[in-house]
Amino acid sequence: MSFDWLSTATQKELDCFKSICNQLLSRTYVVRTIYKPGEGRINNPDYVFLSAHFEAIQEYLALLDWDLRKDDLNGYFYVMNTDDANRCNLNKKETAILLAIRMIYEENIERLGLEQDAVCTVRDLLDKVVTDYAILSTKPNMDEVKRALTLLDNHSVIQRLEGKYNQNSCKFAILPTVLSVVSSEKLNAIVSVMRKEDEGEETEEDSTD
User: Within 28-68, where are the H helices?
Assistant: First the structure.
């Protein structure tokens, strides 16, 4: 097997191997560049290690029913469960926030170039959700916003840069991994369904007033 090198790997390499496997299983993605306080964008050493030992890690994860994939163009690795298990389920407001983030990335994709991360604030995001994209009729409260953004951060879809997720001024980067979370083909269809559901709920509320 491709991971025969494990028998001769150093302890540091073994620790890195285990750390990256755990990271993929818990966070789904490993990205090429990350933001580090005081240093800005830096190359991710985990991405470099994963690139060097891709086949070994891929074969190891396959034993656990996980398929390791890579997107060289956009700079990330990710895993999918081959049994279609271990999915992360989002509620309606979390889904709306994810869709808005995906649409913001789509708006910025042509000018991103090699940077590949779109920077946004919580205030801008909420304006997009309710006004520009009209996915929801009212803004989620800040506890709901924090919960949704923390979940997406934990799965390497976004990365916080400044502030806290329950603050309007909080700044975060939208990572290219969002492209595989919601494909371009599905984006408009899902947004359309969300809008219809929200309009239906508004109609029901009006009829009971």
Answer: 45-52, 54-62
Q: What SS3 class is residue 132? A: helix
Check: CB of residue 44 under 8 Å from CB of residue 30: yes
What CATH code would you report for 2-81? 1.10.10
CATH class given for the domain over 92-208? mainly alpha
User: Residues of the chain with pLDDT > 70: what percent?
Assistant: 91
Domain ranges of the chain: 2-81, 92-208
* Rounded (to 5) percent helix, strand, coil in the chain: 55, 15, 30
In this prediction the pTM is 0.86
| Both structure tokens of 151 | 């979940």
CA 56 to each of CA 2, 21, 137, 186: distance values in angstroms, whole numbers, following the listed order: 5, 11, 48, 33
Instruction: Taking each helix axis as running N to C, give the angle between helix 54-62 and helix 45-52, from 0 to 180 degrees, rounded to the nearest 10.
Output: 80
